Amino acid sequence: RATGEVRCWGSNSVLGAPTFDAGTAIAAADEHTCAVQADGHVACRGSNLHGQIGDGTTTTASDPVTVSGLDDVVAIAGAAQRTCAVRAGGEVACWGADRIDPATGARADALVPMAVPGVADAGSIVDAGTHACVLRDDATVTCWGVAYDGQTGDGRVLRSSVPLAVVFPAN
Questions:
Q1: How many CB atoms lie within 10 A of CB 64?
Q2: Is 31 in contact with 14 (CB distance < 8 Å)?
Q3: 85 with 35: CB under 8 angstroms?
Q4: 45 CB neighbour count, 10 Å cutoff
Q5: How far apart are CA 92 and CA 70, in angstroms?
Q6: What is the rounded CA–CA span in Å between residue 51 and residue 31?
Q7: Is 140 left (phi over 0), alpha (psi -120 to 50) or beta?
Q8: Which of 60, 57, 56, 35 has the alpha carbon at shortest distance from 47?
Q9: What is the pLDDT of residues 119-163, one digit of tens each?
Q10: CA dihedral 41, 45, 49, 50 (to 10 degrees)
Q11: pTM for this predicted structure
C-alpha cells in the first residue's frame, strides 16, 4: 500500500491482526513475516519456534518485534522457519532453523542473526529453508546449507556452513 502498511492473509492462526508497517522489503515464510524498515532495522512477527523472529527468544509474536543486532539491512529473504538478510556492506546474517555450525557441521537453531562466513559482497539473496544463495557483486553465485540433492550447485552432495561457488555448465 502507498502508506507502507503491509496486509497479510491466510489462516492468521499465528499472526493475529493482518497488518504491520514495512519499509523497503518484505519476506514471508511458512509462519512468519519480516520487513526491512526504512531505517535498516528488521521487524518480524509470527511463529518463533526456531528463533525465526530473531529476538533471542522462541516466543511467538503477534505484533512486530525488532530483530536483534541489525540496523543496516538492504535485502531480506525467508523460507520455512528461517530468515536471512543482506547488510549494507554486503555481509549476510541468518537466523532461525537449520543453521549449520561452521565449527562442528551440526545443524542447530539460531535465535539471533548469525553472520554467514565468507560473504562480504552480497547484492541479493534467496532462501529455500534448508539452503540459501547469494548473488555477489562480481556476478557469481554462492550457496550454502543442506545439499543432499545438490542444491549448493557445486556438483557435490553435502551440507556446508560456508558458501560454495555455483558451477554453471558451459553452453
A1: 21
A2: yes
A3: no
A4: 22
A5: 11
A6: 12
A7: beta
A8: 60
A9: 999 999 998 877 889 999 999 999 887 777 666 676 666 776 778
A10: -30
A11: 0.84
